[in-house]
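Side project, low priority. Logging it here so it doesn't get lost.
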Amino acid sequence: PPGDSGSHPPPQAVPVAGGMWGAELIVQQSMDAGTLVGSGGSLYALGGGSLIRIDPAKRQLEAQISVPGTDRPVVDGNEVWVDSPSSGGGLTLSAFNATTLAPAGSVAVPGGVFQPEGALAVGPGGDLYVAAGSSVAVVDPGSHSVIRHIAVSGADSVAVTPDGSTLYVAAGSALDTFDTATGSRIASSPLGGPAGEIGRAHV
């Protein structure tokens, strides 16, 4: 209060929900909807034009770096990836160190059409799958390069099964299923409306 010169304890975590489990506000940081992911004891999110890493055990923001992307980040081993529209068309995938968020390289994906969510997924073997218009680009994170393309009829978002054998592609009002080993389409299911995002988690 004005005129109060007394000492005060540091702010504590603020309870924000009850119910069966309860919840706490652990950091006061703006985050874009749908971008929060967890991996290896850390939380990652995009917010205010930045990629952030949160240590939930310490209840604090550990690292932050400006990024152009608005899709949710994808954690692949020791790197965090985000996608963003390229100035020359297509997409740019940017990699950051999972601990420090220092830049770790980038990959250009020609033909990619930037989607607000779900254009990027990671398989259990570490390969990245990127919705790239008439194909799904497969990126090797080790070499930071596109290693092959899987032809599709138009990719809006992607997801990979936990065993890495099957790729799901949302294309308009259909959900297409592909064999990741051969790249062949094995099924297609009409959804009766825009497919939207399917890549938030492995199926």
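Brief comment: DSSP finds no helices and 17 strands in the chain.
Revisit when time allows.
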